[in-house]
Design a protein that fits this description.
It is a single chain. By secondary structure, the protein is α/β, with parallel strands linked by helices. About 20% of the residues lie in helices and about 20% in strands. Strands 3-2-1-4-5-6 form a six-stranded parallel β-sheet. The longest helix is centred in the C-terminal third of the chain and has 14 residues. It binds pyrazine-2-carboxylic acid (VGL) and zinc ion (ZN). Pyrazine-2-carboxylic acid (VGL) binds next to helix 3.
Length: about 190
């Protein structure tokens, strides 16, 4: 499948806290990094989202239950855990989108309450390729958000990993995305 000049890669939340050793680690989360670095140069448009919470974000649970609404404290704005994984190649001119930045609102969708759709549309983007962390939360909701905004959406399956709690939730998320109309591809399909 040929990557066109009107395609955008949306790299979701490849941040230290979602990688092994971080506050809310996704199993093998760091393994998406070389895959994303490899496909990134194919795209004229690249967007990197960040989970970017205030200290007192409503999603933080004490003790955390590791479910929606009760996460460990993670991705606090400007903290080391919120930084992109050190090996992720983020071009100097990449668009960075911060989400869930307000204390009282959770948001798993990089299109929700941001100007991302508008910016992509202004750049003539028609197809959005989504990858990153975590498959069952921000990747899923961002892919569905892109669909809602009228984009053709592709999930780059091997460039994603899920929280996967309970086990199977990452696979379930992929099925949900497919049912909604997201196309699933593999990094090796892209050229
Ligand atoms: C995410 C849980 C909490 C994600 C963000 O990026 O998928 N998951 N906050
Ligand atoms: Zn979060």
């Amino acid at each position: 499948m040929k990557v066109e000049s009107t395609d955008a890669l949306v790299v979701v939340d490849v941040q230290n806290d979602f990688c092994p050793g971080g506050a809310l680690p996704v199993e093998e989360g760091q393994r998406v990094v070389p895959v994303i670095n490899q496909i990134l140069p194919m795209f004229e448009h690249a967007v990197f989202s960040r989970d970017w919470h205030p200290e007192d974000h409503c999603s933080f649970g004490d003790p955390p239950e590791f479910i929606d609404g009760s996460w460990p404290r993670h991705c606090v704005a400007n903290s080391p855990g919120a930084e992109f994984h050190g090996d992720l190649l983020v071009p100097a001119d990449a668009l960075i989108v911060d989400k869930a930045t307000k204390s009282d609102t959770e948001s798993y969708d990089a299109f929700d309450d941001t100007d991302l759709a508008e910016r992509l549309r202004r750049a003539q983007v028609g197809r959005v390729f989504v990858c990153g962390l975590a498959t069952d939360f921000c990747v899923k909701h961002t892919a569905l958000g892109a669909l809602d905004h009228g984009f053709d959406v592709f999930l780059v399956e091997n460039a994603c990993r899920g929280v996967n709690f309970p086990p199977g939730s990452a696979a379930k998320a992929i099925e949900e995305m497919k049912l909604a109309g997201v196309h699933v591809c593999w990094s090796g399909d892209l050229e």
